[in-house]
Amino acid sequence: MPTLATDELELLTFDLAATTARSKRHGSPREGASLAVATELRGKPVRDAVAALAGGMFPEKLEQVFLQTFPAQAELGRSIDSLPMRAAWNLVSICLTARSSGQCLPRCGIHEAEVWFRGGLQAATAWLSAQIPAEGMWQAEQLLNGIQLDSEFRALLPYILEEHGPGSRASVMKDPATASSRAAKREGGVFYTPADVADYMVEHARTLYSGDFLTAKSLDPACGTGVFFLAMLRAAIRQHAAADGFSRLDYITSCLHGLDVSGHALDAAAFVLLQECLSELPARSLSPLAAWKLIRRNLVEADALRVDSKRTSTEFFENPLPHLAPKPFTNWRSFGE
User: Fold this and answer.
1) What residues does each domain of the chain span?
2) Which of 304, 312, 313 is nearest to 331 (CA)?
């Protein structure tokens, strides 16, 4: 059975035929534990930490400071009211990434994590973490200190970072307060694919593809927080096997492209993918922020159902696809009208 692993972060075992491996697939439903329940249990302290940060965030310079770290001018113009939540989610993601990296203390603070994320540059013009009052910062850090960053948490990370929170039929029956999240998901068509389903679909597509899979550019038109990107990366690692020279960062930044209506989801997807290539950054003298930006530039906030078929991919991506969409899908726009 092939096993995929990184220096610091384990990529989960994958075998389409091995039902015994199901217990290891934390990103998939399994006997006695649904994906929604597992995500809710492991994600609650993360959501509580985000709420603690967003609730007291200083609004005066928030947009200016946010844009200095996370360039998203056009996106923010459409969602400025949600900026405190988006900034809080990104700060929590920075902290989780730093604590998972092996390069920071397991319980490093949010500001220390931001220093690490920027490459140790203490002389930043403005800190996003400085926009949080001390009480909110302390509360969020205490919540994050209770998280065990094990293989289950890492496998669930794309689902934990989904912004709406619990919203399944079961969650509403258990807690009617989650009905608003369920309604938001239904309205936005938000559905996060289990990891085993994504792996199966990617593996099937790979067997049908006649070209070089390791250089094939792919587009996920509703990428969310990156479940299919992780499946693509796992497939690329399986195909490459133990041969030298394969770079996860190069593969991610060269081959994986995505659209989504949520800027937050795109930020989260970049953090999810960043965790998979952290071990490559020191040899390249890249800060985590620089690597995050390389990944994020391939992820564009747009509604794939309303993309003008006359626009070329160079208008969306700095590292463009050969074609934004194949001809049979050029009338997708009409389905959204």
Assistant:
1) 19-161+193-302
2) 304
- What distance in Å separates the CA atoms of residue 115 and residue 176, rounded to the nearest whole number? 40
Lowest-pLDDT choice from 41-50, 64-73, 76-85, 251-260: 76-85
82, with CB counted inside 10 A (0-12, 13-18, 19+), is middle
Please choose, from the candidates 79, 82, 85, the residue with its C-alpha nearest in 3D space to the C-alpha of residue 52: 85
Contact yes or no for 310/43 (Cβ under 8 A)? no
> Tokens 């302290």 map to which residue?
45
309 pLDDT band (50/70/90 cuts)?
low
pTM listed for this prediction: 0.81
SS3 161: coil
- The predicted-structure confidence for 206-216, as pLDDT tens digits, reads as follows 999 999 888 99
| Rounded Cα gap, residues 88 and 141, in angstroms | 12
Q: Which two tokens stand for residue 103?
A: 């390069």
- Cα 283–Cα 104–Cα 228 angle in degrees, nearest 5: 70
**2 confidence band (pLDDT: 50, 70, 90):** very low
Q: H or E segment at 87?
A: helix 83-100
pLDDT one-digit tens code per residue, 220-250: 999 999 999 999 999 999 888 655 688 999 9
Q: Show the tokens assigned to 91.
A: 């700060």
Tokens 């795109």 belong to 266
Distance of CA 96 to the CA centre of its chain: 12
Question: Is the CB of residue 219 less than 8 Å from the CB of residue 257?
Answer: yes
Residues 176-196 as b or e (16 or more Cβ within 10 Å = b): eebeebbeebeeeebebbbbb
| 120 CB-side CA count, 13 A | 5
